[in-house]
Specification:
single chain, 414 residues, alpha+beta, 15 helices, 16 strands, 37% helix, 22% strand
Length: 414
């Protein structure tokens, strides 16, 4: 039997990755423009990290963690998201008192039903602003989100924002929700009953039609949050309304328990049912939940599989590409040295050495199919006289014979 890849864990081939490489380069450019530094954390963490950070009301902890016991019988999990690992790393280094602007990128894992826009191994890039209080950081984070979309040519999207209030208003609203749903418990799905007991805000995000009908008569969060929180929402909406389609969505709560304050999500109707490709918010209490000191925090994560679908920038290869074509039987050591010296002369050029003795015609066809700009042809005659044919593979098709020093000079100055 042939061994197949695990369900929901796709392979990426060179043609698939051209767009990914462009996306990654453009994200790094955006992060550099905002002076955000990279951090790398392990794929594997203690399961307790996600139990304590993500929250028991989340489907991630309840049924989506890839967890197993290691040889010491300790429960470990593949990371389902990036923020918890970043905060764990900062606490471990005792750096909660410092300010940090950090970004990360890499695979995440969730055991969920694979469908369009969802995979069991998926990829995220994320940004975390740590040590920054509510205020200017919200505006800079949203400015970065809009800059990323602009660079990638994404114009058809909506930015949804909401505010989860301070601790007092959040607690009062949650209690009001519990009181409202108490007479209607029999009408609720068991999943929503569990949410009501662990994190009532998650009920607002329910996909159950019966729950949504009841929510039309439920208490409104807007009646509980402070005037300061409302003012921040309105000001952000006003400030960015000329740059993107932005709406205040009172039902937006995000899927993780650690969010506080501003939350936001970027959606596009081009993605179908799974329409969100970026989301985040403020999470000021996560550091304390994980045993660290009090630390303000706000951030977001980008679903790379989804944003690749939306990118309107065509993947291009700006590097000059040269084919090294070997015709007839060659002195392999000498041919290798020629390739080595050329690459040393100009590392910015891609030199594709065709390790083949097939006909010149077939190798030139391969060079054209590989979108090479030029070809260096070495035949037995050229090898014996230290001469090389330099061929332009554009429509002009010019070619000339060069000595090795002339070839290196030309190659160096391309």
């Amino acid at each position: 039997m042939k061994i197949q890849s695990l369900r929901g864990m796709p392979d990426f081939f060179p043609d698939d990755l051209k767009k990914w490489h462009m996306l990654e380069r453009m994200l790094v450019q955006a992060f550099d423009a905002f002076n955000i530094q990279e951090i790398r954390t392990p794929l594997l963490e203690s399961t307790d990290l996600f139990d304590r950070s993500v929250g028991n009301s989340s489907d991630i902890v309840n049924k989506e963690l890839y967890s197993f016991l290691d040889r010491n019988q300790e429960s470990v999990s593949l990371r389902p998201e990036g923020s918890a690992s970043v905060i764990r790393a900062i606490i471990q280094k005792k750096q909660e008192h410092e300010k940090h602007k950090l970004w990360y990128q890499g695979p995440m894992f969730r055991y969920e039903r694979p469908q369009k826009g969802r995979f069991r191994q998926f990829h995220q890039a994320g940004v975390e602003y740590l040590g920054y209080e509510e205020g200017l950081s919200e505006y800079e984070i949203i400015s970065l989100v809009l800059k990323i979309n602009e660079q990638l040519g994404i114009t058809n999207y909506t930015l949804k924002i909401n505010h989860l209030g301070d601790e007092e208003s959040k607690e009062n609203f949650c209690q009001a929700l519990k009181d409202f749903f108490k007479p209607h418990i029999a009408e609720l799905h068991e999943k929503d009953i569990a949410r009501l007991n662990t994190n009532p805000l998650r009920v607002l995000d329910s996909k159950e039609q019966a729950t949504q009908l009841l929510l039309e008569e439920a208490p409104n969060f807007d009646d509980f949050i402070s005037d300061r929180s409302k003012a921040l929402l309105k000001d952000i909406s006003k400030h960015f309304s000329d740059r993107c389609n932005i709406i205040i969505d009172p039902a937006l709560v995000r899927g993780l328990d650690y969010y506080t304050g501003l939350v936001f999500e970027v959606v596009s109707d081009e993605l179908g049912a799974q329409d969100a490709f970026l989301g985040g918010g403020r999470y000021d209490h996560l550091s304390q939940e994980l045993g660290g000191k009090n630390m303000h925090a706000i951030g977001f994560a980008i679903g790379l599989e989804r944003i690749v679908e939306l990118m309107q920038i065509k993947a291009t290869n700006p590097r000059i590409k040269v084919a090294l074509i070997i015709v007839d039987e060659q002195d392999h050591q000498k041919t290798y040295k020629i390739a080595h010296d050329l690459r040393e002369a100009n590392i910015e050029i891609t030199l594709d050495a065709f390790l083949s003795n097939s006909s010149l015609k077939s190798q030139l066809r391969r060079a054209n199919n590989s979108q090479c700009n030029f070809a260096i042809i070495i035949g037995s005659q050229e090898r014996d006289t230290d001469q090389f044919i330099w061929k332009d593979l554009s429509d002009q098709g010019d070619q000339k014979t060069l000595g090795f020093k002339e070839l290196v000079t030309l190659y160096k100055n391309l």
